[in-house]
Amino acid sequence: MATQNFLIELGTEELPPTALRTLAEAFASQFEAQLKDADLSHQGVTWYASPRRLALKVAALSDRQPDKVVEKRGPAVSAAFDADGNPTKAAMGWARGNGIDVSEAERLKTDKGEWLLYRQHVPGQAIDALLPVLADNALNKLPIPKPMRWGDKDTQFIRPVKTLVMLYGETLIEGTILGVASDRVIRGHRFMGEPNLTLAHADHYPERLEREGKVMADYEKRKALIIKDAKAAADAVGGMAELDEDLVEEVTSLVEWPVVLTASFENKYLKVPSEALVYTMKGDQKYFPVYDANGELLPKFIFVSNIESKDPTQVISGNEKVVRPRLADAEFFFDTDRKRPLIDRLPELDSAVFQKQLGTIKDKTDRITALAGQIAERIGADKAHTERAGQLAKCDLMTSMVFEFTETQGVMGMHYARHDGEPEAVALALNEQYWPRFAGDKLPTTPVSSAVAMADKMDTIVGIFGIGQAPKGSDPFALRRAALGVLRIIVENGYQLDLVDLIRDAKAQYDDRLTHKEVETEVLDFMLGRFRSWYQDMGYSVDIIQAVLARRPTKPADFDSRVKAVSHFRSLDEAEALAAANKRVGNILAKYDGELPSTVDSSLLQEDAEKALADVVAEKVAAVKPLFADSDYQGALTELAQLRTPVDTFFDNVMVMADDPALKANRLAMLHLIREQFLNVADISVLQK
């Protein structure tokens, strides 16, 4: 079977930059799945993407499907013929459906009987008939939330489609996709190179497009060039570029021919907090800020042009003119905001609604202040500083800077608090109250910040649950992220806080605003549920997490200790046998409807195996008691692992469900005692092999 490289390129109007990689990768994976379903062999699919194109190249794609023999089983022979040997209606109907006579059917003999069988030879289809359909199917499965129509066409895609190229080697694959007929013409750069190129062979892509059309279709190559040149440009001015992954991705998706340039702004703007300047540079203009070796912002920025200008100074000057008014705005807002102390804005929060049923942001601030003060007492934070931080927490929302540059909330509160002479712990808390902002983000650095951050998040979680708006699919209030943030703050700082207390205290701040009666139970379940995804992300298996969840420990730090202890226990040789034994004991006890004695009666011990087990159990119960008191779960489980041999011997030699009721109850009491020791940590019976 012959093979050739296959190229498909869809030329479009400008694609959404934040979705470009996702679209390209999805196109590749969906098309590869289509090839697999069609039984077409190949040696890999490579994707290309730029602002005005999505493309795939399939290496060594076979020119047709392989021929196949399809077996179609018919009715059993016993049902296919009557007593006289004549075909039944069932047999004739099956044969007719396959286009044969019953006499032409083969017989399939198995150990379960004999059936009629028809083997149909199905010739494979040629590639030229298959590819347009496969490509169309793949494109229809792309993740496009809001497809659009254009012109007078009924077809829909994320952006209007202008060109379509499908080449199998040097052969043009004819077909129409999204209303566009295939051709050999691809479009070059809007302003440089050849505007249109005619491809004679699939192998000429993407090299000719880059060389003659001035379009670098290779996304990863384009991205690598931007990073390399940006680092070199920053180094040339004695600094380091801040190359955030998300911003680099977006810029890569905005340009077809990246040209990295360096521009400047006036030193006077450096008196404005760097976060505000960086926000406008990155968010509005897609520029990369530059820092010195000490992490201080330099009056430089790096940008990526989509054109190779004969006079780069004009491009640089133009970008400097664009950014200057935004920096001037930031300077004006900063100077204006500092004319009033932050605390003076507290009453203004009454004019901003947090949530219709939960009140204003001022109401939320009052709740945060009270709850944060209670948390501070439990974790050893300065209560006065914590309550002051709670009062000021949302005041920067009323400043001109945050109103204009919303992402600077928190950080501007910190700068304004410092200007007002607030204690440093208070100022830091205004910024760190929002930490962690996302999975893996940094945590608040002080107890005061931690208390305010937890109070803010718990207030939101309990409030939204309390009005019956628990997240289902969507999560507009980011409650999952907030819950995980609280858990991380507690666990990673080792705070001995109980979720039950936090939820109860948060609920108490709402007085009678909350209408959902089961709010405390549902919030606790919700937060415990966050442990599952968190520990799975850290590499713990589901059964380990489930073993701990079965005991519902409500102190996150305690939960963490149990998970790590069970994970260690599972690595021991004794773990599998003891997990099975615990499961067996649980099943036995579940079926026993009598009352168990509170202690094991040594006078009722008869067999050597049960006497030996009783001695070891007594010894281990005494040994683990102080370990449990210190929450040394790993040490306790390591001690209990030594029960494996005597437990196995007991089950091998002793009849637990003896005829004598007293004897049976005594043996069950001993097994119950063993199980209770393990249950002090987790239900290890759910551990899998």
TrEMBL record:
Record localization: Cytoplasm
Top-level division of the source organism's lineage: Bacteria
Reactions the enzyme catalyzes: tRNA(Gly) + glycine + ATP = glycyl-tRNA(Gly) + AMP + diphosphate
A molecular function GO annotation: ligase activity
Record keyword Nucleotide-binding present: yes
Domain DALR anticodon binding: start-end pairs: 584-687
HAMAP family (alphabetical): Gly_tRNA_synth_beta (MF_00255)
Protein name per the record: Glycine--tRNA ligase beta subunit
Lineage per the UniProt record: Bacteria, Pseudomonadati, Pseudomonadota, Gammaproteobacteria, Vibrionales
Gene name of the record: glyS
